[in-house]
Write a structure and sequence with these properties.
single chain; 369 residues; mainly beta; Lipocalin; 2 domains; eight-stranded antiparallel beta barrel; 11% helix
Amino acid sequence: MRIKLLFIFLLGWTLVGEAQQLGFSYEPNIHIGSIFRHTSSFTAPINGMSIGVEVNTLFHTTGKKEWHEYMGYPTFGLAVSYFNFGDRQVFGSGYGLIPNVNFRFLKSKFVHGQICIGAGLALLDTPFDIVENPLNDATSAYLNNITRVRLGLGWTINKNFELQTSGSFTHYSNGASALPNLGINVAAFNLGLRYTPRPLEEKDYKHYDNFSDFDKRVRVNLYYGMAFRATGTSGGPQFPIYLVSAHASRMLTRANRFSVGMEYEFAGHLYAFMNHIGLFETQQQRRRNASRVILSISDEVIWGRTAFFMQIGGYLTSSYGQQFPIFEKLGVRYYFPIAKSPTKIHLGIYLKAHKIVAESVTYGLGVYF
């Protein structure tokens, strides 16, 4: 829990700190939607609509740094959210704190497209309990990750107010650190109002005649990560998952880095389970069946020292308990530069899933050179 709080503090501090606080906005939103079954294993009853409210405090970039302009002057926010999932006895409510980044596109005088991406921490007040709440097979922990994507339109009312209409996807999961953990997924329609006390004017933005060149050389990105996952028994102990990787990375644009490489993952929870039931004759066979060799490609959208990480990977080996052969991973990285050297150290947090069913939350340290 302390590690999760540290990462969410780092992410929130980074996103807000990257923004230039010349202009800020307040954005209350209401979410109207429903939990949906994303897997046949999800058997909990879904009764009623999910209603959420959220207040997002937004800070605007104005060109203090070059990337503000070539990223279209994004807006960074810190949102406080509440969701009533529609069935108080089974799912209860969720309370979230969500650092987020907002981009506008297809801008005109009266309307523009916008996307908001955020990830943070959530407190769920009615998790699975074998006696008190056996129907909730979606989540079994109070503290969870929350990931949210919102896509829609902003409508200009006047210089201070904008009407927000959008659709959203919100995901709650503890990364299988406790079981069961199928995750709660909510699809919703959103209606909001953005209020800007002091709207930015054209003179407030800094523009660059020429951008500095970006590094187009192929670099190496090494990474070590660790996650903790329970075995198949609810309330059981957690076991570590170890991950090491090596990727070749290249900047495609000033704000986009593509990587391809190999990973090795050791699933400690599967190894412990095989030892417990005496599966396979030798320790070597058990270790091999707890090992995964992975080919992965990833993309990072970079704003300043922070990067939003997206990855798709495929298993090159077949091992015991291996799930769907393709997985997806979302995360956030923060890069620490070393003097004027191209070498950078990065810290990150990543949510890995198979067909949007979470497998683990990984905390990692890496070096890019």
